[in-house]
Amino acid sequence: MKESFFRSMTWMHTWVGLLVCWLLYLIFFAGTISFFRDEVTLWNQPALHQIATPSNRIQIQREQIVAGYDYLKNTAPDSNRWGVYLPSEREPQLNYAYEKPRPEGKRFGGWQDHYINPVTGQDVDQPRETQGGNFFYRLHFDLHYLDTRTARWIVCLASLFMLVALISGVVIHKRIFKDMFSFRSNKGSRSWLDGHNVSSVLALPFHIMITYTGLITLIFMLFPYPAMTAYDNGVRGLFDDVQPTNVRTKSNPEKASLAPIEHVLDQVYTNWPDADLTQVTIRDPNKASATITVRANTGSLVQDQSPTMLFNGVDGSLIAKTNQEFSASETVFDSMTALHTGRLANPLLRWLYFLCGIAGCVMIASGCIMWAKRIRERMKKQQTASFGLKLVEGLNLATLMGLPLATCAFFIANRLLPITTAERADKEILAFFLAWLAVALFALFKRGKRQWIQLAWLNCAACFSVPLINAITTEGNLISYLINGQWALFSFDLICLVCAALFIVQVKKLRTATSKTAPVKRSSRSPKKQLEEQKA
Amino acid sequence: MHTQPIENSQPLMERAKLSQFYQTHKYRFAVFSRFLAAILGGYVFTAVFTSLLSIILPLKKSDAVLLSISLTILVYSCVFIWVFAIKSLKRIWITILLTTTACALCIAILKDWL
């Protein structure tokens, strides 16, 4: 649209990026935390902290399933659904769950969980009600307060903009290799540009992969058309074709006795002798339409669809089994979802995912700060800031400094809210949004360098208080986690402390920048960094 | 002598105003139109194009659909960038409309909808 291709792309990169950068920041921030979803959930449930993973975890799975089956038979014979959720490497507890009676007009009544310590076989106290890491996971594509569908369309549009900005970013980047190694600090917007380049280029394959595959996870909402054209019943037809275990039998309320679980398990272990099972779910138990679904872990395969077997619940015969021989197209499609969710990752790879996610946050944050900084630098002495500039500066402060504070508020609320509070999980989330709202209101009045410093101090205090409050209110603390080798909890607390330290660095940076440059208000290098780190 | 007929000057002024409004906001209209072409035009084109792809690819039905679906985002982002790379707005709109119609027509013929 401009005179040259290069200038068109620069123009597009700037505006497409600026339009959605704050939303993208939220998505990347919450998404990065979600890589440690199970670990965050564990941190949020101190009742489960004492559970250790038995060394013969896989060998005892069979006994656990049989015991769970018996327990559910005796406890909830009339429930619509049962589930036996086995401990994994990341989730230590064994869970026998059944669906609570459905309220009028609802399609699902919610799970009644019953947690068991797999080592001792004893019941565990019901953990506090919390969303844990699941909150951040849902937040990064459902945006919490919005209607799910609307939110997902907005997220998709933002992701498309992101992808386009990434591609055009590469195009306009003339010295992509050289810039990978150049960072000129304390040079105003030049430093910000360097920061933007370094964080983008170093993790570029990750950024493109995560954005593309993210869109792919929502593709059936975004582009159902190919499936609709090829299949008479659209997306459902495709699913039935690709996933044989997806068949839905009509509910039949007639009573029928359940098949012995031993019979089912014999077939499972004949097919998969060394299987690491994750869950056994029973639909319509004790009814004529009963089905039993057994799922196994995909392990470190780049595959999203877990190996599944579907059994008839009355006679125990195998109805369907996932096809483990993928065709080329299936592999391409399925591996994209697997790459996005990162469930395949071992701890080291998971940390790499996390670091790349942080690089993404830095990239987005430095991009939006740079825009504001450049406009400020171009302004003449007496010129007043335009509405647009003020808006961008306000959103920058509110988002970049508000999200880490909100995250801390969420975790602090988890520890401080009384266990018996009604709708406790919702109140934790409310704390998250209230903290964010407070920062946004603050940013409404002033957006200067001093405000950045104040909020950095506040964030520092909040980050520091998370492990502190944890140590006071629960039995464990940073040192006991280290001694007992509880690495998930240890890393969580450690990251909070690292973030607190980074916020102090930010304050220092902001101060030195104040004395050197003209009294123009703006932030310095670290805000984004810290923010991101926060997420663990 | 130089007086214009009064009944004529009113519409003329209106038109002048309109054209002045257009002139001052010309750039905004152009940007808006371009974003519309990129987001909406790109979406419709991608939808129709990949739908066509899903029925003409010489693969098993489910494979053809999965492959076309995997390509949607690539197509969409390429169209998006193309819209911003081309100078003439008219050319963009005409190209999008023509190709979309052509693809839709092919689908209709292949699926016997006509």
Automatic annotation (TrEMBL), chain A:
Residues 517-536 are annotated as: Disordered. The keyword tRNA processing does not apply. The keyword Transmembrane applies. The chain crosses the membrane at residues 12-36, 151-177, 198-223, 351-373, 394-417, 429-445, 452-473, 485-505. Keywords: Membrane, Transmembrane, Transmembrane helix. It comes from the Bacteria. Pfam families: PepSY_TM. PANTHER family: IRON-REGULATED INNER MEMBRANE PROTEIN-RELATED (PTHR34219), PEPSY DOMAIN-CONTAINING PROTEIN (PTHR34219:SF4). This is PepSY-associated TM helix domain-containing protein. It comes from Pseudoalteromonas neustonica.
From TrEMBL, chain B:
The keyword Transmembrane applies. Keywords: Membrane, Transmembrane, Transmembrane helix. The chain crosses the membrane at residues 35-59, 65-85, 92-110. It comes from the Bacteria. The keyword Transmembrane helix applies. This is DUF3649 domain-containing protein.
